Amino acid sequence: MFKINENYLKLPGSYLFSTIGKKVAAFTKDNPDKEIIRLGIGDVTQPLAPAIIEALHSAVDDMAHAETFHGYAPDLGYDFLREAIVKNDYEPRGCQITADEVFVSDGAKCDSSNIQEIFSADSKIAVCDPVYPVYVDSNVMAGRTGTYDAKTETWSDVIYMPCTAANDFVPELPKETPDLIYLCYPNNPTGATLTKNQLQEWVDYANKNGSVIIYDAAYEAYISQENVPHSIYECTGARTCAIELRSFSKNAGFTGTRLGFTVIPKELKCGDVSLHALWARRHGTKYNGAPYIVQKAGEAVYSERGKAQLREQVAYYMKNAAVIREGLAEAGYQASGGIDAPYIWMQTPGGMSSWEFFDYLLEKANVVGTPGSGFGPSGEGCFRLTAFGTYENTLAAMERIRKL
Questions:
Q1: How close are the terminal C-alpha atoms of the chain, in Å?
Q2: Contact at 8 Å (CB) between 214 and 275?
Q3: Which one of 140, 149, 171, 326 has the minimum C-beta count within 10 Å?
Q4: Global pTM?
């Protein structure tokens, strides 16, 4: 008789955003006259930029002719996209990344979940707390996290690195040495960042202790401060200890188009075994690559028109972030973030739990946010609002919150 992977049964409840969706659907059914403003799930709202749309149309036309038709994409991705990534994302920042170290995929979420497959099942992981739940959940499914304590909402074999207002949302280097260190900067959900000197400390720590940093830089396009690095490869020694995840979803609106990439330098090894080679083997076995049409759209992101149009979109969302941050301050809430990331992290009022505040905000203001506890135990008592709504809805949401 077949058996299931019992590690899946260890996952508590449902996925965070699935729970939010169910709650909102139930409220909408019971209150069909209410206009809900969604500042919860980090989905973009602006349409794809004209330069990208033109590239998509051109690529579709290519598929209609035998001489320009494309079937399966190359395992690592098309050269035209990988070379554009290196030329635009890495060379200007002095990062020594080559095109064959870039693995094109259907998004950073998939890569952040799948990358753990190339590591030993007994690897010890460390995560910032709070942080994007996929990092822990994927390792639960792989059987690395031990037992779950529902009271503390922690896993016995996970090293949690608290990131709270008390430490300016900057985690301390762990005393217990992890094998895998998950860092997400700019951070989701807190919107916090690390300076280059702070990130260099992590690179030095990883090299000294034989750890690997899995660095999620999905929100790097929103960085505005000069001393905040856009890539971990801006740090000395990162090529021997770090894997970087990138996405086209947040900077270019590809949430519905799906495109991302992972960078694994060839110097990153476990003994004589190259992690680059392992991920290449995994890519070749389990993934056919993002379609030609989508990769051509990704190439257009790096055109001069594309870059100019995307700067406008990023500025649009950061204008929303300023509205939220300033609106919360005027309403008497304590909040942070919204400077280098499209997220604002706020303290819940009156000792409310994060889910109590979710229900309160939905019922009283008809505004949807994200409970902080869904990002880890240190997220309890906090709440995330996203700047990915429309400007008009963002203004309306803040007006409703002010009236509470």
A1: 57
A2: no
A3: 149
A4: 0.95
